[in-house]
Write a structure and sequence with these properties.
The protein has 193 residues and is mostly helical. The protein has 10 helices and no strands. The chain has one domain. Helix 2 packs across helix 10.
C-alpha cells in the first residue's frame, strides 16, 4: 500500500471520524441532530444506523472536502469508508473483548468498550472518545477516556423518553421538538465541551 493511500486513510479518519463527530457534540445546532444517535438507551448494532440525515450530510462534507482539497486517492476513500462502516458496527455491537486484549488494541483502535464510554449518560464521558477507527486523535487531543467503566455505563439521554422514540418519524422529528430546544439551552449553559 502506498504512502499516499495510508496518509489518505488517516486524514479521512481524522476528518470524518474525529473532527465531524466532535463538532456534532460541540455546537448546539449540530448536537440537536446527533442526539438521535445518542438517544438509544440500549446500544447495539442497530444504534450504528440510528442517525439523522442532517448528520449524514455533515459527515459526508468531512469526507468530500479533504478529498477535493488534498486530492486523496480513491483507493484510500474506499478503504477508509469500508473500515469505518465495519468498525461502526463492531463498536456498537455487544462484543466483549478479553480485558487485556481490549487495553492493548485500544491504544490505537476504537474497541467496543472504548465507544461504549462515549454513549454514557454522563456528559464527561459522552464528550470523549470521538474517534471512529483510531483512538490516537482522542489521545493526542485530550479527549480520550479509559474503557475501565464500559461494563457499567448507562446509555441514552436524560431528557429523552425512549418509549416516545420508537418510530422513524419520531426520530426524524426529534431535533425539532421542544426537548431539543431545552437540551440546547442546557448544553449552552453547561459548558459542554
Amino acid at each position: 500500500m502506498s504512502v499516499q493511500i495510508i496518509a489518505g486513510i488517516v486524514i479521512l479518519d481524522f476528518s470524518a471520524g474525529y473532527l465531524a463527530h466532535r463538532a456534532l457534540h460541540l455546537f448546539p445546532n449540530l448536537w440537536r441532530f446527533h442526539r438521535v444517535h445518542h438517544s438509544d438507551d440500549f446500544v447495539d448494532v442497530t444504534t450504528t444506523y440510528r442517525t439523522h440525515p442532517v448528520e449524514t450530510v455533515w459527515r459526508f462534507l468531512f469526507v468530500i472536502l479533504p478529498v477535493w482539497m488534498i486530492g486523496i486517492p480513491a483507493q484510500a476513500v474506499v478503504i477508509q469508508r469500508l473500515v469505518s462502516a465495519t468498525n461502526g458496527i463492531l463498536e456498537h455491537g455487544n462484543v466483549r473483548l478479553w480485558g487485556p486484549l481490549d487495553r492493548v488494541l485500544s491504544l490505537v483502535w476504537v474497541t467496543p468498550n472504548v465507544h461504549k464510554i462515549h454513549h454514557s449518560r454522563d456528559l464527561a464521558e459522552t464528550n470523549s472518545n470521538y474517534g471512529n477507527v483510531l483512538t490516537i486523535y482522542d489521545r493526542m487531543l485530550g479527549t480520550f477516556t479509559s474503557s475501565d467503566r464500559a461494563a457499567s455505563v448507562v446509555y441514552g439521554l436524560d431528557d429523552v423518553d425512549p418509549a416516545r422514540m420508537g418510530s422513524f418519524g419520531a426520530l426524524m422529528s426529534m431535533p425539532f421538538q421542544p426537548e431539543a430546544q431545552r437540551s440546547l439551552t442546557q448544553k449552552s449553559g453547561s459548558g459542554r465541551p
